[in-house]
Amino acid sequence: MLSMVVNGSEKDHNHSKHGSSEKKVKHSAHEHGVAEMNLALLGREVQIEISTPSFNLLGFEHEPNTADQKATLSRAEKAMKAPSTLFTFEGAKCAVEHVSIKSPFEQEGHGDEHKHEDEHKHKENKKAAHAHKSEDNKAEADESSHSEYMLIYHFECESSEENLKINASGLFSNFPNFSTIRTQWLSDKKQGSAKLTSKNSQLSIK
Ligand SMILES: [Zn+2]
Q1: Residues whose beta carbons lie less than 5 angstroms from ion ligand 1
Q2: Which of 32, 42, 53, 134 has the fewest CB atoms lying closer than 10 Å?
Q3: What is the pLDDT of residues 30-61, one digit of tens each?
């Protein structure tokens, strides 16, 4: 399992070494404007994981150099850490339980603010677990002109709701570089997928 993860991680980041055939085997292609979101509704807990090119959040993917870029990074990470402005819930009252931001950059205030994310790993599908690992290797971001963020949000809802609606319009308005978020969701009973855009930013779980 571990070696598979390592290989996957290299594939995701070594854009220059391989031709276009690489895309077929990747779990998620690195495509600017596009992000992958995995959402799990487990009892009263909603877990959202977004794997995205840094471009969608920052407008660039390299280590920030200029004062402007550093300010952009700081503004963007502040927004990433405020999920209540990124997502709204309909059908249940849900409060942020924790936030984890996996940045490709070394910096002060690294966003991994909570430690118990591993407890939830067994509930994730394999794809999500792979994506997790690929973000952990920061050294690779320096070798490539591309980089990615992983954003993990846990919400705790007041009741377990069968017909929950989650709207990501705040995410699109805060970060207009997002054009499409390919979403896979699963609940205790069902699963599905959706393509969210700024014009169609609501995910219905039912
Ligand atoms: Zn890129």
Answers
A1: 53, 61, 146
A2: 42
A3: 999 999 999 999 889 999 999 999 999 999 99
Cα(14) to ligand 1 centroid in Å equals 11
Given a cut of 50, the residues of the chain with pLDDT beneath it are 1-26, 109-143
Q: Which helix (H) or strand (E) holds 203?
A: strand 202-205
Under a CB-based contact definition with an 8 Å cutoff, are residues 128 and 112 in contact?
no
Q: Which long-range contacts (CB under 8 A, 24 or more apart) does 75-81 make?
A: 76/175, 77/101, 77/103, 77/109, 77/111, 79/174, 79/175, 80/111, 80/149, 80/151, 81/111, 81/113
d(CA 150, CA 38): 11
- Measured in Å, residue 190 CA sits from the centre of ligand 1 at 33
For the full predicted model, state whether its pTM sits above 0.90.
no
Specify the DSSP class assigned to residue 112: B
| CA atoms within a 13 Å half-sphere pointing along the CA-CB vector of 198 | 9
Closest CA to 111 of 72, 77, 79: 77
Measured torsion, CA atoms of residues 175, 29, 181, 47, in degrees rounded to the nearest 10: -100
Backbone angles phi, psi at 81, to 5 degrees: -85, 10
